[in-house]
Amino acid sequence: MISVLTGDIVYSTGMQQDTYQGVVALLKKQFSQVQQKYNAVGDIYRGDEFQIQYPTPEHAITSAILIKLALHQSDLSTKPIRCTMSLAFGEYKVYAAKPNTSTGPVFIDSGRGLDNTPRGDLSIHVNEKILPFELILLTRFLNHQLNKLTKAQANLLSLYIEQDFADHSEMAALTGTTRQNISNRLSNIGATLVRDYIDTYNAYLNNL
Length: 208
Known about the structure:
208 residues; alpha+beta; Alpha-Beta Plaits; Arc Repressor Mutant, subunit A; 2 domains; 5-stranded mixed beta sheet; 52% helix; globular
């Protein structure tokens, strides 16, 4: 089983050319990072859509959230840049050097899932299974939480995830603030709930 993330930049056709080019450059930077960290491979197609294939499924949900946060907090636009995402877990027929030449059910599920995902949200698909209601509800919470973040909050949540959910004392040292301040800020954005969401979803995958 592998995982495939298909994404689409919201309202990309209405962007200024320099903004769009900046988004493409940011995505390519993300592809480089996921390749180094997860041995995953990504590519852009049809101008504003992209796809990433992850050989280890458990890496995908964390990576998807970090990519969404990277776009959200970027300085490319005065408003957060939103991205619709469809993350599928399943089997493949051909695992090629790039996702545009790979084939199989997981690639189809991810692509089709994107068409049915509310704009700006993340959806999850597992081997055409019907997900437990609790996980569907948790994903709806995740979308609600991520979509309402400010750029500063997205930056903090991204750092928290990248630091493997470091304790608040470490986060305070990294951000040059007090432990109480960082605890309040992380609480306001539901950071520990995002952590628990990632753990819960990966536990579900491991039990498939």
